[in-house]
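Minimal example, chain plus tryptophanyl-5'AMP.
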Amino acid sequence: MRVFSGIQPSGDLHVGNYLGAIKQWVAAQTSDAFYCIVDLHALTNPVEPEILRERTREIAAWIVAAGIDPDVSTLFVQSHVPYHAQLAWLLECVASYGELTRMTQFKEKSALQDGVRAGLLTYPVLMAADILLYDTADVPVGDDQRQHLELARNLAERFNNRYGETFQVPRAVTPASAARVMDLQDPTRKMSKSVASELGTVYLDDRADAIARKISKAVTDTDGAMVYDWDRKPGLANLLDMFAAFEGSDPRTVAARYQRYGDLKRELSELMVESLTPIAARYRALRENDALDDVLARGAAKASVVASATYARAAQAIGLTRGR
Ligand code: TYM
């Protein structure tokens, strides 16, 4: 079954990206899986060219360090495969302005910025192109991407109805726990690459003592009852969810094992350190040699074979003539 997912090189990776996405990518890894570093998406916000280039390489190294084997799955950079931007244009002419302005992430992000880039509005269409180019069935993502996936499904169906059966209609696959990891200092806000919240964010690159400090200072509540309840106790629910996701169990089972928040926090930081330290060590080793550029070139070549065929099908269906 074809799997596709992507991640933006827009900041340092955190435990939300790992639990919400990358850990699932590793679990879904087969020769039919395509994982993409979506550098074109990162251009929707201001970023220095050198920083974008550096982050693209960093993210590639993290993905491999976390367990994606580029000899099994296809790992590549979005801009290396020009069909993404090309298909996005065709789909922009299928999407409506109204549905794009109604997207939650656009409303939230555009409200915080001056000089909002047009790309921020059309971003979900580029994301739909990413997915549809690969005849994708499953898209492993965190919960925040659900609305974007709905749009991708709608655009696929609308295109198919208008121009004939062209695209596979994909579905989002989110993890049972930790599909939305919240900021440790403000559990009503999502942990995010682009929002600076040093104490609220556990980065994959954090050392053991930083992880322990951040978890021990995580905001909970004062009633002290070990109950998994997102509405009344979001800080605690967030910790229980992360615990369950790292351990591969259920947040209620974790809650039943502990009486005191302090004990839960201590064991959660131990579990995190145990899970993340080997990944960070592999990351540092990968950054020391530059074999990744070759890996990404091979990935782009493999991705292009699939993407070019789908793009040609869509271009034909919509009425473009073929150049010589
Ligand atoms: P991005 O780069 O913001 O995030 C990458 C992945 O991490 C997940 N994620 C989280 N999961 C749980 N808790 C969190 N706090 C958290 N923060 C982030 C995201 O859900 C995502 O799975 N638009 C996408 C990138 C993209 C893409 C695609 C994804 C572009 N094209 C095609 C899938 C398929 C994004 O900005 O993700």
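The first strand starts at residue 3 and ends at 7. The beta strands are 3-7, 33-37, 74-77, 138-140, 171-173.
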